[in-house]
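Chain A, query sequence.
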Amino acid sequence: MVHYRVVKWRNPYKPLPKLRGIVQAAYVLFFVLVGIEFHEFFRQAVSGGAVTAHRPPAVEGFLPISALMGLKRFLVTGLYDEVHPAGLTILIAAILSSFLARKVFCSWVCPVGGISRALEWVGKKTLWKRSKRVTVVHDGVDLALSSLKYLLLAFFFWAIVIGMDKVAIYKFMHSTYNHAADAKMLLFFTDISRTAAVTLIVLAALSVVIKHFWCRYLCPYGALLGLVSWASPQRVVRDAETCTDCKACTRACPVEITVHKKNSVWTPECTGCMSCVSACPVESCLTVTKKGKGSWSPWYVPAVGLGTIFFLWGVARITGHWHTDLPLSTLVDAYRQANTLIHP
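Chain A, predicted structure.
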């Protein structure tokens, strides 16, 4: 009698979530250090003494509204934002990477996404440790809540893209308010109001119960990248014939897409994290873009997305589109007024 040994398939993409966690943690740490460095620069700037600290351009990544105005001006006039060029560069990098490799910026780079994942981990270890849950939000409720971020995006689109001409945008970009936008963001956290603190605590608590609550339902930046990624040629494809309906893919999804029910994941909610592919126990059941051997390796998705972001950062550094053109005296004057400035 001949005995055959069944060799269980070892998913070569299992390390992807762990690698993503490392990259996310590194970006969270990076932005914490950016915040500390900027805080020191701000403190020295408003103190009236010598300014020896440097202003980190990456702090402009927290100024998406200014970056959106800069993007419209750039598309209309061809002029790059000289006030917050790093913010515009980060926005362009996020958009382009979303087209080439889904919402990699959200799932691998964004510090809010990294913090949300940490809160999700807390939820797994406490509230639903032994749960075999597939989803905790009803499809209809999920759809209604998901629409909120698109409504916010529509508001900003109407207010900026439609409501402001290039003259109005130029005036805003060169206003004292915009000069101090990074300082106002810093003061939001260092001099936080009770209402803002309670709001952040509630959002954090909701993110423990519901995976990535802010990202899924309220982030207009993610909504924009989602619409761009909708046109991306990359997507997760399921082979219904080999699928065992184990639902491991859906349980692994950070935004609870029902991957086990879809032949192709086209939804703009997909972040391109590849968690579903890494969780699948069946060889070639979940692939990228095409079925079988013609598919993309899931490793390529973060590689292309992150590579695009780093490439554009390098181009911006080389071409002088990373550091602000504002003189130190202008920044100092704006920062000293930051507490009293009202949106024009």
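The two ends are 85 Å apart (CA to CA). Residues 23-39+55-232+298-316 form one domain.
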